[in-house]
Amino acid sequence: MNKTIGILAHVDAGKTTFSEQLLFHTKSIKKLGRVDHQDAFLDSHEIEKQRGITVFADQGRFEYQNSTYYLIDTPGHVDFSSEMERAIQVMDFAIILISAVEGIEGHTETVWNLLNKHHVPTFLFINKIDRTGANVDGVLDEIRSNFSKDICDISTTFKDGMMSEELIEFIAERDEEVLEHYMEKGYEPDLWLKKMQSMIQAAQIYPCASGSALQDIGVKSFLEKFDLLTVTDFNSSQPFSGRVYKIRYDDKGTRVTFIKGLSGTLKVRDEIDYGNEEVEKITQIRTYNGRQYRQIDQAGAGELFAVTGLTNASVGDGVGALEEKAVYDMVPTLRSKVVFEPGVNSKEVLKYFLMLDAEDPSLHVTWEEQLQEIHLHVMGTIQLEVLEQIVFERFQLKIAFEQPEILYKETIENEVMGYGHFEPLRHYAEVHLKIESGKRNSGIQFESRCHTDDLAIGLQNLVGQHLIEREHHGLLTGSPLTDVKVTLVTGRAHNKHTHGGDFREAVYRALRQGLEKANNILLEPYYHFKIIVAIDQMGRVLSDVQAAHGRFDSPMTEGDKAILTGIVPVATFMTYSQELASFTQGKGRISLTFAGYYRCHNEKAVIEHIGYDKSADPEYTSSSIFCSKGQGFTVKWDEAEGMMHCL
C-alpha cells in the first residue's frame, strides 16, 4: 500500500526532527540528524542548515509493515507557505505538530484551514512534552476549542490494536451502524477499526498523540497506530494520471518534474499528451529519498516520483488522464525588483529567474521590457533573503532586491461598452465587448452573446482566450485588471484579410477603450485576521485594527480570552505580529491569511506614488486602427465608437 504523508507545523515545532525519527525507526537513514547540528537528512540544503528552518518541501521514503511511505517535510515559516500548499495537494494524510508549550500558533491555524479546504485526513502530534511548561491536556483543550471537537487522543485510548472504553464510545457516538451494534452485541474490534479508518479518511475524526521527537518519546508508538489506522486505495488498472507538485533543476541543469501518481502506470519512454498536439517523452523515472535518487523503469498509482523529459508541464498541472489544474490559496501580496551589478547581462539574469519561476510559480517573474527590469512576487522579506542566497549558490550571481511594495489590482464600478477595431492594410478584426463589475475576487469572467452569423464559434473562443491569456493593465496604476465580467456582444472578421493576432489586437483595444469610459477603482490585498488576547487587551487591538483601516466582527470571549476576527489591509498590518507580541509579552496569538482584494484605503496616495501614465504604456492602447484608400490610420478611443463597422 502506498501512502504519502506530510509533516506540517508552525516554525520550530519540531517537524524535521519528527521526520528524522520516522526515517530512522524504519531504517531509511542510518543515523539521526539534528536541525541545530546542521546535519538533518531532509534539511540538506546549505541555506536550511544555516538558518535552521525548512525552506524546501523535500521528501523521504521508507517501508513499514506492508506499506511504502512517501514523507514530505514542509516549510513552517509563513514566507514559504506557497511551497507548503503545493505539497498539501498530493498528501494522502497529514500530521500536524503542535508544541506542548506554545500550543496552537498563528501558522498552525493556516495549516489546519488549508488541510480542511483540500480535504486531507489529518493526525495531530503534541510535541516537546519533555520541555518545562509543557501542558498536553491544555493543548488538547485548545485544539478541541479552535479546530474540532472530534479529536481522539490515541496516546491513552488505543494500545496494541485495542481501544479503551472511552474510544469505543467516541466512535459509536459518531456512527449509527456502530452504535446499534454496540447496543445489541457490544464491541467488535474489526468493525470499530474499519469504521475508525473510514472516519479518518473522510476527515470526520482527527486522532491525536503526544511525545517528544527530540527525545524519541512516543514517535514509534505513533507510527504503529498511524500505520494501522490509515488505508489508501489507488487503481492501477486505469490509464495513467498524476499531479505535478514540484519542479527542480538538478546539478547538471536537467529539469526534473515531480509527480504524484493517481492511477495507472507510467513507464520510461511513455509519452505525455498535453491535448494540444504537443507530446513529450519520459526519458527517466527517479524515486527520491532526500537528495539521493535511484532510477526505475516504471512508477504507479500512489507513488511519488520524478521524471525527466518534460519541459512544458508546470507545477499544479494534471498529466495523463487528469486535466484539472490545481488552484492555490497562498498568494503573494508583495512585489520587488531584482537589482544586479552594472555590466551583468540582464537576459542571462532573467534566464536564471525563469528557472526559479518554474520551480516556484508564485514568484510570477516578469520582464519589464521598457524599463529593462525583472520583477517578482513574494510572501515576505525572509523569502527575499533566501532568494539572494539561492541565486548566488546556484548561479554564482550577486543580486539584491528593492524594498518590496504592495501588489495592487484594479476593477470598475459600472457597466460600459468597449469597442476595438484593427485594420491596417491586409488585416481585419472588430470586437464589441460589454464590460461590467464582477463579484469581488472573481477575476476576469468571459461569456459570449455573439451570434454565429456574425462571428464563428472558433473566433468567439479566441476572443475569450485573449482575455484570459495574460494580465491586463488598469488605467489608474497599470496594475492587473480583475473582478470584471466581459461579454462578447458582436464582432466581425474578413474571409481574406483576418490573420493570426488580429483579434488579439482588437480585443486588447476594446478592453482598454471600455476602461477609458468606466469608473475605475483601485484594490489592495487584505488579510483575514484572528487574534487571541487577554480580555483587558481587547480594546487596544480593536483600536489598532480601526487605525489600520480594517473591519472586525463581533468579538467573542472564552474564559479570560478575547477572540477577534475580521479583515485588514496588508499594507497597514504586515508588521503587526511584532507589535502584538510586544504589548502582550508574547502571550497574544495572531493568524493572518490572505482574504482577497478589496477597495484601497488610500487610493489617491497610491495612484500619485506609482505615477502610471496610461497613454505611455507600450503594451496597451485604447485607440483603434481603420483603413482608408489602402492606408491604415489611428482613431483615438473617444472617436472610435462612431466608426465601428458592426454598429
TrEMBL record:
Keywords: Antibiotic resistance, GTP-binding, Nucleotide-binding, Protein biosynthesis
Tagged with keyword Transcription regulation: no
Domain Tr-type G: 1-238
Pfam families, per database record: EF-G_D2, EFG_C, EFG_IV, GTP_EFTU
InterPro entries named among the record's database cross-references: EF-G-like_DII, EFG_III/V, EFG_V-like, P-loop_NTPase, Ribosomal_Su5_D2-typ_SF, Ribsml_uS5_D2-typ_fold_subgr, Small_GTP-bd, T_Tr_GTP-bd_dom
SMART domains found in the cross-reference section: EFG_C, EFG_IV
Domain of life of the source: Bacteria
Statement: the UniProt record of this protein carries the keyword Cell division: no
Gene3D superfamilies per UniProt: 3.30.230.10, 3.30.70.240, Elongation Factor G (Translational Gtpase), domain 3 (3.30.70.870), P-loop containing nucleotide triphosphate hydrolases (3.40.50.300), Translation factors (2.40.30.10)
Function of the molecule: Abolishes the inhibitory effect of tetracyclin on protein synthesis by a non-covalent modification of the ribosomes.
Name of the protein: TetM/TetW/TetO/TetS family tetracycline resistance ribosomal protection protein
Species of provenance: Bacillus xiapuensis
